[in-house]
C-alpha cells in the first residue's frame, strides 16, 4: 500500500449496463464482530474484500477467533462467545479503518485483558475522544495520545450501563457504546440529536440479543448471548453513490445498480439527488438479513441546484464528496449546511473537495459547516485526494464531464472501501486509467 498511485479520468460517453458494487463496508465490519462474539459458526456472504474489513478480520484473528475464507467475498467465522476472546501480545492494527477502531474500542472495553489499537498515518490523526469519553463514563479505561490513536484499552474494568445523549450524531460512537453495553451491568441507552444508521441494532437483533430501537434511540441491557446466524451483506450504498452521480450527469446514461442496501439511515443521497431532479427508480425491493435491499435504475437528468435540509446530513455523511460533484455541474446554486463532521473524516472533506473543484473551475464558497456551490462547467486539471478514497472516486466522476482530463493524485486508498473500482467503472463506460 506504500507505492504511489495516481489516476487520470477523462471525458466519457454514455454509461450503460448493470453494476454490482462490493458489499457494504459497515455491515461487513459488524458481521465480523458480532459473529466473533456469538455462540456457533456464521457464514458471511457478500463480504467486502477491502483493506478496512480485512484489517478487522485480522484483529479478530489475533484475539483468538478462527475465520475461514472458503471463497472471495465469503467468510466463515467460528464464534468464541461473549467472553471467549484472548489477549494479543502484539498491537491490533486497524489500518485505515475508523469504523473498525471505534467499534473495537467499545467491544474491547469489556474484556478481562489489555489491548492496544493502532492505525496507519491517516487514522492516527483522527479524533477518538468522542468515543473514549462516553466509554469512560461507563467505567472503561482507555489511554490515548491527547485524544488520538493509539488507544490502550485497559481490561478488567466493571462496566455499567448509562443513558448517553450524543452531542453529535454518529453511528460509530453509538455502536461502540452498544457493544460495550453487552458487557455492562444494567441498561445502556443511546439518544441521538438526529437518527443515524442502525446497522448495529438490526444485526444485534438478528443475532438474538434483546434490543429496543427506533430512529434516534437504542437501548439494551447486558447479560445475554449472541447466537450465530448467516449474514448476506447487501451491496454498499456508499459505493453505489459514485455511479448514481455519474449516470445522472453524463448525457445518455442508463445504469442499473443491483442488490443495493437501502437502509433509510444510509440513503440520504437518494433524496438529495431527487431534490436536484435526478431520475432514479427503486425496483425489486426486498429484505436480506434484516436489511432492505433493492435495484436502482438511474438515467441521465438535467440537474438543478438545491438547498439540502440539514435533516439529510446524517443519512449521507459519506456521500457528500459525490454530491459536491453533482452540485458543481448542476444548473444554479446548491447550499450545504450542518455538515461540520466532514472536517474530521479521512481528510477535511469540505476543504479538500472545495479546493479540488475550484482547481477544475467550479465556484465554491466554503463555510464552517458546509458550502455554497454555483453550478457550471468543469475544466481539466490536477487535484489532490490526500489519500482519501471517497475524494479520489468523486474526482474520477468529475473527470467524466470535465472539459479535459482530470489527474487525481494519491488514489491507493481506494482499495480500503472499493477494490476493483477502476475495472468496474471502465466496464460501464468510464475513461479511467493509471496516470504516468
UniProtKB/TrEMBL annotation:
Sequence positions that bind phosphoenolpyruvate: 25, 98, 126, 172, 349, 390
Keyword Transferase appears in the UniProt entry: yes
Compartments (UniProt record): Cytoplasm
Residue ranges annotated for the Enolpyruvate transferase domain, each copy included: 13-423
One MF annotation (Gene Ontology) recorded for this entry: 3-phosphoshikimate 1-carboxyvinyltransferase activity
Top enzyme category: transferase
Annotated catalytic residues: 318
Function: Catalyzes the transfer of the enolpyruvyl moiety of phosphoenolpyruvate (PEP) to the 5-hydroxyl of shikimate-3-phosphate (S3P) to produce enolpyruvyl shikimate-3-phosphate and inorganic phosphate.
Family per record: Belongs to the EPSP synthase family.
This protein's name: 3-phosphoshikimate 1-carboxyvinyltransferase
Taxonomic source organism: Rhodanobacter glycinis
